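User: quick one
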Amino acid sequence: MTLALKTTDLARTFDIGKRLFGPPRAQVHAVHPVSLDVQQGETLGIVGESGCGKSTLARMLVGLLPPTSGSIEIEGRALDRADPAAFGRLIQYVFQDPVSSLNPRKTIRQIMEAPLRQLHGLKGRALDDRIAELFDAVNLRPEFLSRYPHEFSGGQAQRIGIARALAASPRILILDEPVSALDVSVQAQVLNLLADLKSRLGLTYLFISHDLAVVEAVSDRIAVLYFGSVVETGPAESLFAAPRHPYTKLLAESAPVVGRPLGGAQSGELPDPLNPPPGCAFAGRCPRASDLCRSEVPHLRAVEGDQFAACHHPITD
Amino acid sequence: MKLFLRLLFRNRLAGFGAVVLGAIVVLAVLTPVLPLHAPNETNTANRFLRPFAEGHLLGTDHLGRDLLSRLMWGTRLSLAVGFAAALVAGLAGAAIGVIAGYFGGRTDNVTMRGVDMLMAFPYILLALAIVAVLGPGLLNALIAVAVVNIPFFARNIRGITVGIAHREFIDAARLAGMGHTRILLTEVVPNVVPVVVIAMSTTIGWMILETAGLSFLGLGSQPPQADLGSMLGEARSALITAPHTSIVPGVMILLIVMSVNLLGDGIRDALDPRLRSGALARPMAATRVERKTVPAPEGEGLLRIDGLETQFHIGARVYKAVNKVSLDLKPGECLGLIGESGSGKSVTALSVMGLVASPPGVITGGAVRLNGQDLIGAPYEVLRALRGRKVAYIFQDPLSTLHPLYRIGDQLIEAIRVHEPVSRAQAHERAIKLLEDVRIPNARARARAFPHELSGGMRQRVGIAMAMANDPDIIIADEPTTALDVTVQAQILALLDDLRRSRGLAILFITHDFGVVGQLCDRVAVMYGGRIVETGPTAEVLEAPAHPYTRRLIACVPELGGGRRVLAAIPGLPPAVDDLPQGCAFAPRCDKAQDACRKGEIALTGAARQVRCLYPEVAP
Amino acid sequence: MGGYILKRLLSAVPVLLGITVIVFLIMAMIPGDPATAILGSYATPENVERLNRHLGLDEPLWRQYFIWLGNLLQGDFGRSFALNRPVLDEILDRFSATLILAGTAFVLCSLLGILAGVVSAARQYGLADKAITFVVILGISVPSFFLGMMMILLFAVQLRWLPVSGMYSIWGGGDLPDLIRHLTMPAFALSVVATGVIARLSRGAMLEVLRQDFIRTARAKGVHERRVIWGHALRAAMVSIIPVLGIQAGFVLSGAVYIEMVFQWPGVGRMLVDAILKRDILLVQGGVVFVAACYVGFNIVVDVAQSWLDPRIRT
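Assistant: Done. Structure below.
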């Protein structure tokens, strides 16, 4: 298998309290150095709660945000400069809010034409044919092309968003919470469409979501993010079934599941990003934490088979 | 465009403004060909003729010049100068604002500091200074007025542009390979234009006033040429002896500016999509009730909802958000109300205490009985006294539902003191006790915090504490954990469950999540298209759903631990409640639907388990 | 809070410097030679040159600026040649009159405007709302100088209730009732436009706030509707009303120029217009800098009020 996407120590720091001149007042590490490999044709799920840096990571991967350090390789080619146009032909992005990702003052045809003209220089017949083909692929009727975004429901708008991303003929799609704005009955439609497109077009997916069950249902492999770092990766079948990192375990136990009694009211919150703890970010909430955890940052290492955890005291059977 | 004109003239005042302004503009354009005296033709023998004098309809001024003629020529001048100034200021300001707002960073910082510097002058000082440099004259006055107004436009448009530049469709355009110039011109500018038009149309009147003002001071148009402002200025010395020379140009300015303002307001209303949908209406203290008959109570219960109908009347459309919904809640019971967005679950919950925003909401039928007392149509004071004391609410997003400017302790104290005449100090102690009860660490210090200083989970705990403040019998929780992360959600659900069991609270829990219902609720009611389609004990409904919608909705939701799989989707979309189909609302999406499903009213049948279906999955 | 005030005060320094630069540059661009203007067109070239040197006008521009700025900081605004007295003395005399007029009008328009706006929003589409909206449209459309003139015709000439014009200083022998009699018409005429603007804005801000979720929360708690409107909603609406009060203060100050002309009020606005027409540059320069500095100071007060009201912007 070949690697579709490889990041090496990709990190992003935000400056807080910018001044006109001179250094900023403080810095927040939104994403700590992250190294990920995604195989060709694989779906990598990325889960994490709000503030874990998953959107920042996604925006770096498509070139919307320049990384502070680290590098991105797509199919063996390095993409260092944050230039969405250079990234665009290889990697595309599907947004969380389908309606706000469509310009309200453009028709769907105009929206669809942009990537085809700009990235592939299509015009005339070829352009029309390609749009028809894309619309067919996402099961939308061609008469929708002359309408404006506000005339569509969330599910339809998300299909348009997917069609636009596919128009660039990318190898990889970054799906940033693509169904969390949709109702459950529509969610499943979009998820199945995505699965279908992937197998037909041989795409590679990065599927970002806060919904564990959805991620588990669509992914081959899953990476769990906490406070800007990957704390655990592993195959979808075993990650939540047998979590190795205590945070993954907490996540899995918190998900509401019919028939399971309500979990204990385990308290605890994210650390202050302006004043991060010295060791493991999860130590403050962790029942297994030791002095080592509070002083030294754990690094990702193999715990069992394909499962990696960044923990000094991983859960083993 | 047609829509725009229709909307514009729907506002009668704007139509009036358009007609008056139109007439004035036409007359001003035609002035050179109208049979008028020459405006500067002096005749000192006929000084200060009163209006309706022979040959001079509006009389003459201090040099015997014909006032009507001077008025028309002055109007021409004033209109032209006002429009020109608005155009120059609007375009220059918009250009600055769009560039600063789109590029942000240092460009923005430097530009906006310059703008702020200009805004640090009261505008007339700057205008006076500019006229002082350029010398008095109408063109110079125009330049001064335009320059002085550029900062206002720049600021306004910059704010709008910043909002647009952070929208996702701009990112999408960048990913589609567009460059900055193309994005600015094709993505940003079309969205800014309506705002620029609104800003210009609402400030033209002001520009006309300002240029007239400079002329009035003698700094604008110079004699013998006169715009309306300088006509007034010249007439001022004869104000008492010949008031008509002042009144004539003054009234004209008033007419022009007023019609421009009325028209400008109309344009703003027609272009603002929020006003178009009537969304800017203010919700009243309690939902409007238009109920013809009061249904008889169908049984006992702490809270009984019988045949509730709540609708939204928007323009000519009627959205039947809640359609003959009946529910009952026993003391200490937790009832889950589940459905997708638009199913009417939240509106049902808000109708109980008359909290549905009205306009556009109207309760058109049914009854809500609390211990037998009907709350629909109850006087405001009765409703108010029960709100928070007997029935308390917990809402979805704790950041927007707590007042951002009051300390959380004060918000709790208020909740206590509206219903109980206790001293502030006593209420304060109770507030801290409440914060401790919802397990907020360090409650005494946290009471002084503002909502934005707390995390989402802590804020929702405050929301729960506030609901508990008066020891209510019932808590209505409207998706209280939807905005929270899953680990925090688990904490909040556990807390609610504890409180409920220790205090014997009844909870009406609104959610879209079967997992949550399964963990928390004794009974569940499923809503679809504004109606209850199935109710029953939670375990039974989840295990063997009777309505096809319930069954397929449960199948849609992946459950953790199931591994990778294909999901069972429901084709189609939930129905629009302003255009419900005949018969069962789910029939168009249902694979078991027969002809009988598509006509007539389908009743909710059964006893402990009820289902609204002709061909249920299991017998209720 | 104290830190915020200090920060805000410090941030005013560059603004004030910027103002002096802008004013200085504008005045330096004025065509013509001040010395000729002072001495008249029959002056001999030697006299003109001597006066230029005396005024420092033969120095390079940037040095002139720093000399002028240094003098300003020491309270030396120069001497008005037309009035033949120190500029600062003249400004202080005149500014107190303007302050009485504009201050009264500002208080009037803030109170009336917010009151009208809140009532209008609370009774949206009701009779009170319609009446207020109509009056407001009329108010923002009438030129204040025209309104002033019409008031003179009606109240002074026809009804003889109030004096036509002029003002007696309470410090210069007049008493308070007399001041009020002279102040009533000009202050009212001056406040009308700003009242209209503030009322419109307050109505809009209130309507925006009343739709917010936290209003629904207050109602769900059982808070009285009166308190919902005048407490919860108005407080939140003030966050967007206060900055507009700051801007409107500038407009009131600006409008005072017209009103002072109409009512012969001995204020700084009339002084400036006369000075411009007479090309009395030092007086214009000094007057503009002084008034702008006061306005900057006022805006600091507005910002501090805003931060007191809204804890979210204090950091």
